[in-house]
Amino acid sequence: MESRPRPRLRMGWLLGILAILPGLLAAPPAEASSHREAPAIRNDPSADNTDVYLFRDPQDPSRVVMIANWIPLQEPSGVPNFYNFNPDVRYELKLDNNGDAVEDITYRFTFTRNVRTPNSFLYNTGRVTSINDPDLNVFYTYRVEKILGPSPNASGSNVTTIGNNLLEAPYNVGPKSYPNGYETVSHGALLSGLSIDGGVRVFAGPRGEQFYIDLGMIFDLINLEGRAQPPFGYGVNGTAGFNVQSIAISVPINQLTANGSTPTAMTDPNAIISCWAATYRQATTVISSTATPVTTGNWVQVSRVANPLVNEIVVPIGLKDQFNRTEPKDDAQYASAILDPEVPRLLTALFGIAVPPPPRNDLLALVQGVMGVTRRPNEVISDQLRLNVAVPPTPIASVNRLGFIAGDNAGFPNGRRIYDDVLDIELRILAGVLIPAFNIAPNNTLGDNVNGPDLPYLQSFPWLATPHSSFDHKHDHPGDPRLRAFFPASVQPAAAYGPDGKALEQTPYEAPASLPVPDTIE
User: Which residues are 146's β-sheet partners?
Assistant: First the structure.
């Protein structure tokens, strides 16, 4: 069979196509930040880590917030059994405060399913007005354990239960099921974990997906020309309309640092902390034709995530499952892929973009953090999300979605805030912008034209948006009036609560008048 010639790229399209090059980062089977990123975990969504966030609380700078999400791309109307955390899985947020790539503190979450009326098929048997309403037929409780030192086989005094029978927020069924509003009920879940272990706050439950990327255009053979035609003319957020399961934890800084201090100098080694999330299942599952499956044996790590896109675009497909089962302390085996990744070579081969030659030591910023800010000299090479807690949080009104590379020093890769456009940031870093000679166009202008999520962020803990309703939700499409980008009013007013759990007074939310929008919240 005669092969067809490959079409040539016209120079007139180059600048336009540069705007969507993040598609080159998302080689199948990856679908987003760490969604379905490896062959094995894509078949086990309840154990699939998606995103991790780590930042100082801009409302209460004495605290650090860690958020980890699981179960990617949830269709909100997935009835009659809505999404939930799996009782057969251990969900863990791990923190390293001395740079050895071994966890010093772990917060482990385990869940229990409860059913009030088992002879009903309904998730809720009537209108639900509170978290304890008897009409909420199916509900989940959870336990939080704090583990000192390596967590998988920890026992005895190293494991302390700091919260028990806490309430997972229910799924957002719809307005008739929650006549007083979904967040009125979800607020009860927030209050159940408001103060444990000396002021730690926890939340577990569904949230709106807020990692954003134009998936449809990318996987339709990079269909830039389709996006250029009316009624588009802009990027479309492929994750819009979907939910995730989220665990959020807010901890006083001095409970996380190596010496128990609240550092004020960026040069203080104690100011650097780092984290990742991991998921564990027991080694053996026995399936019977007459009984519920039984799990036994040691707990085995099946998924992990820290920095976004590492397993997707750095680790080769043949090692992705292995990466999910290994620990950060062993990440030196992936160093060659980090120092000479595939994506920059594709940028040069396909589009003629000049990038730095290997070895790309500048790319250690993606996994090791920025030297002098979030990286100590000679610390263990490992994929962790690092934060310098001595860097003041940027006020919400001054946030730049491009974070550290745009001069907003409190942003990714110094931690990761919910606002940070990590896709655009990482693409530009891969193109070499941390090296002055390559901090030029087009390298420093790459992006996918999706600058924010479809739902507005919350103004306070647990930060991620109210989840989409099963009854009324939309995925981005032409003419959708709820198409949103990152704009000044992108903070949701309806569900922000102060440290005492009381609602904060807010101004009404208004959608933007038009697109595009600026990089900075004015």
Answer: 107, 160
Calpha distance 287→285 (Å, rounded) = 6
Phi, psi of 42 (to 5 degrees): -65, -20
Q: Dihedrals φ, ψ of 70, to 5°?
A: -135, 170
Segment among 271-280, 432-441, 448-457 with least mean pLDDT: 448-457
User: Of 342, 415, 412, 335, whose CA–CA distance to 380 is shortest?
Assistant: 335
The strand pairing partners of 56, in sequence order, are 64
CA atoms of 342 and 344, how far apart (whole Å): 6
Mean pLDDT to the nearest integer, 460-475: 90
Which of 382, 401, 372 lies closest to 486 in space, CA to CA?
401
CA-CA distance, 169 to 249, in Å (whole number)?
14
Residues 6+ apart with CB under 8 A from 180: 129
C-alpha distances in Å from residue 341, one per residue of 218, 358, 360, 365: 20, 9, 8, 13
Within-domain flag for 275: yes
- What does the pLDDT read at residue 517? 32
Identify whether 427 is part of a domain. Answer: yes
Distance CA 451, CA 131 (A): 35
Q: Enter the tokens of residue 175.
A: 């307005």
Burial 146-169 (b: 16+ CB within 10 A, else e): bbeeebbebeeeeeeebbeebbbb
Q: How far apart are alpha carbons 172 and 412 in whole angstroms? A: 31
Q: Domain count of the chain?
A: 1
Q: Is residue 514 part of a domain?
A: no
pLDDT single digits (tens) 398-411: 999 999 999 999 99
- Please give the residue range of the domain that contains residue 67: 11-492
Can you tell me the distance from the alpha carbon of 172 to that of 497, in angstroms, rounded to the nearest whole number? 19
Q: Report the first-to-last Cα separation within the chain, whole angstroms.
A: 58
Sorted by sequence, the CB contacts under 8 Å of residue 38 that are 6+ apart come out as 29, 303, 311, 320, 321, 323, 324
Residue 329 in any domain: the answer is yes
